[in-house]
Amino acid sequence: MNEYTPDIDYSDLKLEGLAPEQMHQIGNDYANGTNGKEEDLELAKKYYHAAADRGYIDSQFNLAGIYYRDEEPDFQRAFYWSKKAADAGDPESKYRLGTMYFAGDGVEKDAGQALQCFEAAGRAGCADAWWFAGSVYFDGVDVPCDNEKAFDCFSRAVESGDTDLQNISKGYLGILYFNGDGTKQDYQKALDCFLCATEADGSFIQHVSQYYLGRLFLEGKGVKQDYNTAREWFEKAANAGHRESLDKLHEMYETGKEQP
């Protein structure tokens, strides 16, 4: 891919006496239609460019976001400004850079480089990056599956993320505890993790966790065997379209399992 060179002309702006942070604020006002400014994304980009060229990280981050999320994304520009901000130490830009390497947006696809970016972003305080890295190691997408690294990354996401991210990450930790992959098998810890993950409303891992809770109660692992409770968890997941839970329900009905 050809490397992008900044080509935005903002020479028509009156910048004399303005500090980069002031340029950035004016850019925000035009981007959002605030402080008496009419919304004008093109003008916002000019002010962001002026501040970004002067090393203002927030403007570099915003520019990357505009180009990345545009109806017709300009991934080369998004990558250029993400890398500028990432190299200056911005955690969220390191994370975005990782997603671009992972998807091959604006740069040659490179899962190994993506993981380096995610882990650097995580160490700099971006909890979402730890979750993304964990999911890559967990699923083995474009890299060998590594459950120990997945366990470490999901654990770090739990330590530093918000409640939603914690609950989602705990669902994956629950699977690792359940199967003894990347950590010592522990059904009680799996149970605790899955119960938290059922609060991750609407997520895939919510329904997977309901399925595993059904398994724990069906098989009496970490809890007293309870077919009724198992059935309730399977039904919740099956109602959301989780195929394995539906199969378990059919299996229970066919074998006539009753409350032990």
Quickly describe the structure.
The protein has 260 residues and is mainly alpha-helical. The protein has helices at residues 20-32, 41-53, 57-69, 75-87, 91-103, 111-123, 127-139, 147-160, 163-179, 187-197, 204-219, 227-239, 243-255.
General description of the model:
With 260 residues, this protein is mostly helical. It has a domain at 162-255: Serine Threonine Protein Phosphatase 5, Tetratricopeptide repeat (Alpha Horseshoe), CATH 1.25.40.10. The chain has 13 helices and no strands. Helix 4 packs across helix 5 (91-103). It is elongated, with a radius of gyration of 24 Å. The termini are far apart. The model has no long low-confidence stretch (mean pLDDT 94).
Give the helix level as a range of percent: 55-70%
Highest CATH level, the class of one domain:
Mainly Alpha
What's the number of extended β-strand segments? Answer: 0
CATH homologous superfamily of one domain - what is it? Tetratricopeptide repeat domain
- Label the CATH architecture of one domain: Alpha Horseshoe
**Net shape:** elongated
Q: Count every helix, treating DSSP H or I runs of 4 or more residues as helices.
A: 13
> Could you tell me the mean pLDDT?
94
| Order of SSEs | HHHHHHHHHHHHH
Question: What would the CATH topology of one domain be?
Answer: Serine Threonine Protein Phosphatase 5, Tetratricopeptide repeat
Low-confidence blocks of residues: none
Report the structural category. mainly alpha
